[in-house]
Amino acid sequence: MAAPGVANIPSSLKSGIQKYMRIAAEHDKRDPVVAYYCRLYAMQHGMTIDKKSPEARQFLVSLMDYLEQAKKTLGEEEAVHNEVAGQAHLENYALNLFLYADTEDRAGRFGKNVIKAFLTSSQLMDVLTTFGELTEEIAKSRQYARWKAFHINKCLQNGETPIAGPFGLLPLLPWENFPWSSVQPGVGFEGVAGPSVPPSNMTFSTDSGLFPSPGAQAPPSTPQDPPRQQP
């Protein structure tokens, strides 16, 4: 049974679940466990958005059927049948991706792969809410990853050099207000729709608690507490 495709997502669900379905499709061969939980989260989240329209209901039912079949196919994968193992697997994957992006960013190596890694890690941390409330450290990392993806992308679009590592003012960007339309296509999340928040409407904070704790996520080879700079 083939997985429901990204192109088949009804318009009422696209802005809410397309990004997670896209990650799932990218990981079907690379990491089926990650793909499974991304689709599971997409189904659960989709049901909170629209489960009444015929198109949405048909898509969500087909996704549910696929997940049931996938669970049988992945019968030997403990992470699919055991929530503790599943959470550990997904958290480890998301943090490794975050660490890659954080290492590259702090070293001043900016590019589309870093933007995608930051953004995908934050989306996988969304998927982690399938298992319950995020820990404070994961929540901080998710917020930080979103902001760094936006900052690097905006700088590259404007021909500017991004600021490496944590710095000065961190905007509070709730997930539903992430400025998706400002992110260029071709970074691994083509066509993802979402509301745009002009920079002038962003709320800023200098609260250091919004940043990952020094060294908490950064590998030993990277600067763990770089000086804060004003953008």
TrEMBL record:
One GO BP: late endosome to vacuole transport via multivesicular body sorting pathway
PANTHER family named in the record: VACUOLAR PROTEIN SORTING-ASSOCIATED PROTEIN VTA1 HOMOLOG (PTHR46009:SF1)
Taxonomic classification: Eukaryota, Metazoa, Spiralia, Lophotrochozoa, Mollusca
Keyword Membrane (UniProt): yes
Annotated region (Disordered), positions in chain: 194-231
Subcellular location as annotated: Endomembrane system
Keywords from the named record: Membrane
Residue ranges annotated for the Vta1/callose synthase N-terminal domain, each copy included: 17-157
Biased composition (Pro residues): 220-231
Pfam families reported for this sequence: Vta1 (PF04652)
Protein name: Vta1/callose synthase N-terminal domain-containing protein
Sequence ranges of Polar residues compositional bias: 199-208
Main location: membrane
